[in-house]
Protein 1
Amino acid sequence: MYKQIAAVVIAVVMIATGCVFISSDSTEAVEMNDTTYETLTAAIDAAPIDGTQVTISLTGNTTESITILSGKNIVLDLGIYTLTNTPGQHTISVQEGATLIIEGTGTIDNTSHARASIYNGYDDGPGGSVTINGGTITRSQENGSSSSNGGNSYYNILNSGVMIINDGASVIQDGHYSSMICNSGSGTITDFERAYLTINGGYFSGGLNTIKNDGACELIIYDGTFENNSQASVLSYEPTTIYGGTFTVTDDAVAVILNGCDDSPVSRGTLTIYGGTFNGPVGIQEMNRAGYEDQYNMGTIEVSGGIFNITGSVFNVINDPSPSITVYGGTFVESIDESWVADGFEIKVDENGNTVIVESHIPPIIWDDDDEYVPPIVPVQPEDSGNDSVTVVACAAAAVVAALMAALLILDRKR
């Protein structure tokens, strides 16, 4: 009697919320809107294809590979359980036009060679929209070494669509042959769809490279913890923008970040850093793409902030004859080449002996279109600061210095 009452209550809740409960024991029913399912695939297949969101919750460990087809909008709640692939298949595949949101603290695993735990794509085509809010994404049988795939190696995540990873997610593996997360567009070098990966937080550890931003794609990192002891925490050939996070590599790795490009439209090689903490023996080093070994190009690198706890070279230029490196800001344990510091900025040393890049205090000499000197604007200190006289005098002094310099330049020009 109690079981019947419980079944009715659960059915009412599922109908009201659109939730599906999946059990690893196929003798237990899976219900959605009065319909019973015995597998995760069956439940997903029964979900609407008009974009209506449906939540599916695991209630036990499950061995099954699933595909989210175009038009499906699935919230997969792992709970505390593990979803493992069918041998020889990706654990989860997501087609273009599909939406998948992953919740919970459980695990998505893949134990097969050349197969991912999450493949946001289908048959080498573009993927859909994937958001990872929680869970651990792993390859528990990863066996790659620095010299061999060991018969079982691949990415944990391969993104060929739009993917967002939020704080609460963890991606880990122990291999040294394959990158752990690969962000890569689909198609050919002349006909392609770009992939987009945004990381707002989370924990990322392992792989030949922890994050690989490959071809026809863009990567944005706002926060997170990234660890690597093989090659690099980030390998990038396409636009990468870093606003924050902690990136740490051991002495066994090559560099915290490897960056490079070639002459193709899917390998633009722009790296922009606004913040973050970078720990390791080498900061940023050039990386040539396979097939373009004769092109020594470090890409375009701009650094406006961040803390670089680098014990060796911050920028390790090996072969690029004219690296494009511009530094607007940041704190560096080791000094950097003055030629990389942007115009209007200068190198200072802080109280801890670190090199810091700050904006120059003397206003630049500006000339208008008629070759006339434009005087600098002296900032006014807020009245309630308590430092009016000192600040105004300092600003006025700076203006006087700038004016004198300008006068000398004007005289020199008129000679």
Protein 2
Amino acid sequence: MKWKSLLILLFVHFVTLAQYDEATQQTIDSLKNVAETHPDDSVKINAYVEWDNLIYLAEPELDFALNQKMIEICDRNIAKKDISPSRKLFFYKQKASNKNILGLYYTDKSNYTKAHELFEQSMEIGNVLQDSLIISMATNNLGMVYKYQDFPELALKYYEKSLRMEPNADLRSYAATYNNMGLCYFDLKKYQLAIEFYRKSLGLSRRVDDLYNEANVLLNIGELFLYQQNLDSALNYFEKSYEVNEESGYASGLIYNLERIGTVYGRMGDINKSITYCSEALEIVQETNQLDNQARCHHCLYKAYREKNNSALALYHLEKFKILDDSLDNQQEIETAVQEQYQKEYEQMRLADSLEISNQQKIKEVQLQADIDRGKNQRIFLFIGLGFLLIIILLIFRSYQSKKKDNEIISNQ
């Protein structure tokens, strides 16, 4: 199962260009043949999953199509009346996973309404199956949606709930969730906590050789130092993130790294290096539909050429930036109504938490009173028992005295 479902990074999206070495392409072709021709649907599903694992980073649209196809196969089998319980369970679990992955696709497209709907559907299947792993993954991804919607406190609740639900999860999932929690603490301006969770995530990522999450964490640490104007440390972490992304071949991460490095050099006053790095990033990102990354590159170059007093190029990049920024603003307006709904949910969740705490306190008070009453009752019963025992002793003693007198009378006669 792909661990991308548990990862989050700042404004980084997937590159649609795919390049595979010959061996990987042969494997893809073989899996595609099995997925499309094998008579057993469970074998088809396994082939689709392996195929998807190889392409999901490089080809998000194909990733989307493959997961939709798997849902169709699952639904077809679940609807069969003569299907065995074990096969039905297999297809239900797979459908939950596919829904989860499609939710990530829509999250990447900033369609949080659809993403939220799909994560909820995945969680619903997990609840029916009582599968803590499915529920945990969906819960984590709902946290990611709230994080992107600027509700870090609500996101943290979901992340923490996810960890509690799957305490024996794979280290990769812990690494990704710790990274997500670090991002939330950054948004809440709790920078020390953010660094602590980033470092937890970084350590686990390196233990399991998870280059993707390692690069993300290094990037996020760099962002924190950049925000704090610690330019040397920011540059150091951005360069480390670039090296890891270069090793893994994750092109989208490289784009963001180049732009960030260019931005740091611009703030340091090294304008030529700033232009070099941001131009390289722009050249790559123009082949994609990543409007936010394109906007950042143009903004970086606008400031650099302004510093060089090259008004023509500065104006060119400023105009490009404004066009892209307006387009992104329009996308944001679409999500405003959704944010209002999430705000209501957040308030309801806080109210529910308050009621739960209040109820727990009342339960404790009732239990305490019951313990007190129980102690009183025990003492009463003890006194009653002692009273009965004393009465019995007195009766025995009086009987003994009476018999003694009777014996004395008989002896005297």
